[in-house]
């Protein structure tokens, strides 16, 4: 190889070694092999070479071209690999790191509303006991909300619920904004064969408004229908639930005879607490938490289920109420104010779903 070719090869190889990225590499390629590149110029210049030297010179220039093409390609491969390495290093995810701590005051952080969180927790706890989740409409037929639940037209329990009515339909009956989640018991029993195990979290409505009542609130209903179901199942299920939800292993639970039209016998369920301090689990006072009972045979019959073959229990409770108790939230009204400061204070981390593994 003549000196000029050897010099060009050395210069180009030095330039390639100095090219730190793909752009710099491309500049070297263009300067060497591009339209006005130095090797291209040599090839074009072959015509001017005396005929007796042309063959040798042509072979040498072409050889140099091949060598430089290979050198450029190998530098490209090296730079590509380095770029990928750099990206992998920059975007590295350490999956062994603990999750980022929830920053309740950070402007960028969102939070789950406490109601949403409680529904997640209820679903986790009852899910572990084999319950599914059912839903129903907010606007209910009179028969679903009252009649099928053994609350006939002139039953005094109708007045217990300060009902929002909707203008009457074709049958002359006024639909209602459901006053409880119990109508979904009826829909579930009509829609599926026993055995049944469902909870029904959802919105409910009553014309009531003060520090502890809102016209829109949430309940969760529970329904179990199977053969041989007794009060013992009801008690075991609710004691387990209450202890898991409030995370107090020895939470005192009391069952007190009561009355609901759709259960017989019926019971209110109380938990132990301290009335003065609000502390749950000790203190000798009782706080009513929910209503429950054995599903009334007439309700089963209304849904086409033979009460001699199937029995069951049901319960219903206010989601706001158990949420306020669990988290020490003193006032109901801010639940619906959409005040971001309140949400950040009482909200739950979005990225840590309620699971039983860590306790809900
Ligand atoms: N529906 C009742 C209410 O809103 C709560 C309730 C009590 C539901 C007893 C039940 C039950 O399923 O068995 O006050």
TrEMBL record:
Domain annotation Aminoacyl-transfer RNA synthetases class-II family profile: ranges: 125-334
Compartments where located: Cytoplasm
Binding site for Mg(2+): 264
InterPro entries: aa-tRNA-synth_II (IPR006195), aa-tRNA-synth_II/BPL/LPL (IPR045864), Phe-tRNA-synth_IIc_asu (IPR004529), Phe-tRNA_ligase_II_N (IPR004188), Phe_tRNA_ligase_alpha1_bac (IPR022911), Phenylalanyl-tRNA_Synthase (IPR002319), tRNA-bd_arm (IPR010978)
Enzyme Commission number(s): 6.1.1.20
Co-factor: note: Binds 2 magnesium ions per tetramer.
This protein's record includes keyword Transport: no
MF annotations from Gene Ontology: phenylalanine-tRNA ligase activity
Catalysed reactions listed for this entry: tRNA(Phe) + L-phenylalanine + ATP = L-phenylalanyl-tRNA(Phe) + AMP + diphosphate + H(+)
Name of one Pfam family that matches: Phe_tRNA-synt_N
Location, primary (coarse class): cytoplasm
Required cofactor names: Mg(2+)
Signal sequence region: none
Keyword tags: Aminoacyl-tRNA synthetase, ATP-binding, Cytoplasm, Ligase, Magnesium, Metal-binding, Nucleotide-binding, Protein biosynthesis
Keyword Protein biosynthesis tagged: yes
HAMAP family noted in UniProt: Phe_tRNA_synth_alpha1
Similarity section: Belongs to the class-II aminoacyl-tRNA synthetase family. Phe-tRNA synthetase alpha subunit type 1 subfamily.
Subunit description: Tetramer of two alpha and two beta subunits.
Name the UniProt record assigns to this protein: Phenylalanine--tRNA ligase alpha subunit
Organism field: Teichococcus vastitatis
Lineage, opening ranks: Bacteria, Pseudomonadati, Pseudomonadota, Alphaproteobacteria, Acetobacterales
